[in-house]
Amino acid sequence: MTTPPAPGPGHRPSPEGRGAPRTPSGHEVPVLGDAQAARVVVLASGGGSTLAALLDAHLDPAFGARVVAVVSDVPDAGALERARDAGVACAVVEPKDFGSRAEWDAALAETVAVFHADWVVSAGFMRILGAAFLDRFGGRTLNTHPALLPAFPGAHGVRDALAYGVRVTGCTLHVVDAGTDTGPVVAQVAVPVEDGDDESTLHERIKVAERDLLVEWVGRVARGGLTVDGRHVVVGGGGPTGPTG
């Protein structure tokens, strides 16, 4: 059984006598957040529509979590612009700046650590997290996927579900492990496949469900913690979570 440490305020450098923390590239970053809220770092590669839902939710003190930073592998990702507009710190860790995948993965982990993350949320992050990252944040990194895992893992979950001819697909929030979309499931929501759906129309409906799923369960995890027991996930002291919707 793996029990990640309970969410907490983390260690914050004092503003007196100590400079602001820095990313591995040397950029200063603010250390923000309510001491009562779990600190969440979001990884994102794209436009950030899912991130936007979290940024709205974290304004409510009852949510229990605060997005303290957004980290991307794409310098012009729309998610970074959303974060800046919301006053949230940003960092970019591009694979091309490193000699190997392992070096990039280690730098990503170090960047996230700068923000004293209690939880990491991968929301549209199009990179597989490696050993160095999972050594530091394994068991407390969550990922959303646009299919009902274990069906249709990988980058083309929506397309694959349509090609297979399923009548119901959906979205999954899972704990990240070393595989591709193989981690224990936290929660799922079913989304019917409608006649005439193409990949775009189906994906848009899944995104709506995905945003609601992420906000609900990141809040629950932040407020109550999360325990992984084999393939089963317990959030907030309740029983293993399963499909809804």
Automatic annotation (TrEMBL):
Residues 1-29 are annotated as: Disordered. InterPro entries: Formyl_transf_N, Formyl_transf_N_sf, GART. Belongs to the GART family. Residues 39-216 form the Formyl transferase N-terminal domain. The keyword Hydrolase does not apply. The keyword Oxidoreductase does not apply. Pathway: Purine metabolism; IMP biosynthesis via de novo pathway; N(2)-formyl-N(1)-(5-phospho-D-ribosyl)glycinamide from N(1)-(5-phospho-D-ribosyl)glycinamide (10-formyl THF route): step 1/1. The active site is at residue 145. The record marks 181 as: Raises pKa of active site His. GO terms for biological process: 'de novo' IMP biosynthetic process. This is Phosphoribosylglycinamide formyltransferase. It catalyses: N(1)-(5-phospho-beta-D-ribosyl)glycinamide + (6R)-10-formyltetrahydrofolate = N(2)-formyl-N(1)-(5-phospho-beta-D-ribosyl)glycinamide + (6S)-5,6,7,8-tetrahydrofolate + H(+). Its EC number is 2.1.2.2. Keywords: Purine biosynthesis, Transferase. GO terms for molecular function: phosphoribosylglycinamide formyltransferase activity. Catalyzes the transfer of a formyl group from 10-formyltetrahydrofolate to 5-phospho-ribosyl-glycinamide (GAR), producing 5-phospho-ribosyl-N-formylglycinamide (FGAR) and tetrahydrofolate. Residues 1-12 have a biased composition (Pro residues). It is an enzyme of class 2 (transferase). The gene is purN. (6R)-10-formyltetrahydrofolate binds at residues 101, 126-129, 143. GO terms for cellular component: cytosol. It comes from Sanguibacter suaedae.
